[in-house]
Specification:
The protein is α+β, with helices and mostly antiparallel strands. It has 5 helices and 3 strands. It has one domain: Arc Repressor Mutant, subunit A. The longest helix is centred in the N-terminal third of the chain and has 15 residues. The protein starts with 8 loop residues before the first helix and ends with a helix.
Length: about 100
């Protein structure tokens, strides 16, 4: 064996049956990830960066989806953004009271 995983027909059939989360589910997934980042402490800041791991945790395809989700959380007053960088994308903020409920 050469150390590579062999992906058979069954794997690809299962992939075809899977779907991405809805925007509401992806928003929830991101909020839950931010809470984990803060060690579930309301006073601790979170950071959102363009990293492949975040795409898979949240369940979205691209970083523009992450940007949209962060903005959605902000517009719904679930997070407070302290600073935001564009290139590279980096957001630092806090989960608000409504975000914890």
């Amino acid at each position: 064996m050469n150390g590579r995983a062999r992906l058979g027909r069954e794997f690809f059939e299962q992939v075809l049956e899977q779907s991405l989360p809805s925007p509401a589910e992806a928003t929830d997934n991101l909020l839950l990830e931010l809470v984990v980042q803060t060690d579930r402490r309301p006073g601790r800041a979170f950071s959102v960066r363009e990293e492949p791991r975040l795409l898979s945790v949240v369940g979205v395809v691209g970083y523009e989806d992450i940007h949209w989700l962060v903005n959605n959380l902000r517009l719904n007053a679930l997070v407070l953004i302290e600073s935001e960088g564009i290139q590279p994308y980096n957001v630092i903020g806090y989960v608000t009271g409504p975000g914890w409920t």
